[in-house]
Structure formats: structure tokens, C-alpha cells
Write a structure and sequence with these properties.
about 260 residues; three-stranded antiparallel beta sheet; 9 helices; about 60% helix; about 5% strand; elongated
């Protein structure tokens, strides 16, 4: 509400006659005349400004709501699509690895492997898959026992998975040295993923003596077998090696490569 600038009286009325010095073009300003002292003046219409502010706020909230509806649904759709793609990838990997995807309620018998390392490995992976549905720790224990039997008989993928279990503490107490031991066995049997993990562990010193040279050797071998993660990690190590160390690491890579199966 406008007040008279001369006598501060709130008793004013709008006037058609504009005061000198104001153009009167702004829709937010109006001419007033004081009922007490007769002073003419120009002041902003606070009621109109308040209304415009409220309308602006409502318009902003409406815009946010519309964007939330549009992009929120889009984000939900993308999340659903990603989950669907992830599930399809898991199924594809399961089929490629030779073990079927497991649905909730499937019955698995640890004795059905009949002592075969391959069957034990596949059954172990099924128990891991079943754990994803049931959350039953017993499934993890069964998976670990089967992996241990398969790995002890020289199954390379089982050895790599056993390394994963000890590295992550999945179904067993986390143990980096044991993880490194199993990764090394799997790597020498030609598993690129085990080579990659060994390279990372050597770089950080997890479960073994830290060695950038050793890290380069294993990452170099994994990269040669198509592991893109290993290729990127190997590139990051080059600047940390002297020329002599790099030449030594590459020489060791060549020699070790001759002793490892080529997948």
C-alpha cells in the first residue's frame, strides 16, 4: 500500500495526473495524491508486484512439474531399459559360459556334478545365481565348496572365480593373499580376467609385494588377449616406469606369454 512521502499518511488515492519527472510508461508505477496534505507522487503498486511474484512462482513450479513428468518418466524408462539390458547380458554370459540362468525356486543338487571339474564350476555359478534370488548364505557356501573342488582339479575359470570370491569376501572371509594365489594359477592357465586382477593387485600391493613392473607384466598379458580394461590400465603405468624397467617388463611379458595357453 502506497504512503505519502511528505507526511507518511496512508490515506492516498490514485491520480490521473502524472507528476513531473516520471514517464508513466511502467505498469508497476502509478500516480497518487495524498488526501491529507495534497502531495502528488509516484509509487510502485505493491499489490500488483506481489501478484506478479506469486504468478511467477506458480509458473516456475508448473514448469518444474512438467519437466519432472517428461524427464522423470524418461529416466525411469532408461533405468528399466538398463536393467533389462543387464539381465539380457547376464543371460547371454551364462549361456556362453555353459551354465544356465537360475530362477527362484530352482532345485540344485551339489552331488549332481559327479566329480567333474566343469560340472562343479557350472553348478557353483548356478548357486551364485540362485543366491541373487534367495539371499540364502547357504547357497554361497555351496558355491564356494564346488569352486574349491573344481579349482583344485585345475579348472581355470573356477580358479579365477575363487580369486574373485576371496578378493570380494563372497561366501568366504576376505583374503587378498589367497585371492592373488588363485588369480596367479588362473592367469598361468590363460584366463585374461585373472591377469587383469593380478595386475591391479600388484599395482596397489594388495596380497603381494607392490611392484609396478609386475603390474605391467600382467596387464600387458591381459591386454594381448583382448582385455580393454587391461590395455587402459597398462597405458597409465608407462609413465611410472623408467626405460630400463619398461624394457624389463616387456621382456618378462614375452617370456611368460610363451608358457601360457592362448585361449
Amino acid at each position: 500500500m502506497a504512503k505519502c512521502p511528505q507526511c507518511s499518511s496512508p490515506s492516498v488515492r490514485k491520480s490521473r495526473k502524472q507528476t513531473k519527472g516520471k514517464t508513466g510508461k511502467s505498469r508497476l508505477y502509478f500516480a497518487y495524491r495524498c488526501n491529507q496534505c495534497g502531495t502528488r507522487f509516484v509509487a510502485a503498486d505493491t499489490t500488483l508486484i506481489g501478484s506478479l511474484a506469486i504468478m511467477g512462482s506458480l509458473g516456475f513450479l508448473l514448469l518444474i512439474s512438467i519437466m519432472w513428468i517428461i524427464f522423470g518418466d524418461s529416466a525411469d524408462d532408461e533405468l528399466l531399459l538398463q536393467k533389462t539390458q543387464d539381465r539380457a547380458f547376464e543371460t547371454e554370459q551364462s549361456q556362453a559360459s555353459g551354465y544356465r540362468a537360475v530362477a527362484a525356486g530352482d532345485e540344485l543338487d551339489p552331488e549332481s556334478s559327479n566329480g567333474s571339474p566343469l560340472a562343479q564350476y557350472r553348478l557353483a555359478m548356478q548357486f551364485f545365481s540362485q543366491f541373487d534370488h534367495t539371499g540364502d548364505p547357504g547357497d554361497l557356501r555351496k558355491a564356494h565348496n564346488l569352486l574349491q573342488k573344481s579349482a583344485n582339479q585345475g579348472h581355470a575359470q573356477a580358479q579365477a572365480e575363487l580369486g574373485n570370491s576371496y578378493l570380494a569376501g563372497r561366501g568366504v572371509v576376505q583374503d587378498f593373499p589367497l585371492a592373488a594365489d588363485w588369480y596367479q594359477q588362473a592367469a598361468k592357465n590363460g584366463v585374461p580376467q585373472a591377469m587383469y586382477e593380478l595386475g591391479k593387485m600388484a599395482r596397489s600391493g594388495w596380497g603381494m609385494e607392490q611392484s609396478i613392473v609386475d603390474a605391467y607384466v600382467w596387464l600387458n598379458l591381459a591386454s594381448a588377449r583382448g582385455d580393454l580394461r587391461a590395455r587402459d590400465a597398462r597405458s597409465q603405468l608407462i609413465s611410472q616406469l623408467s626405460n630400463e624397467e619398461l624394457m624389463e617388463a616387456q621382456r618378462r611379458s614375452r617370456e611368460l606369454d610363451q608358457t601360457i595357453p592362448q585361449g
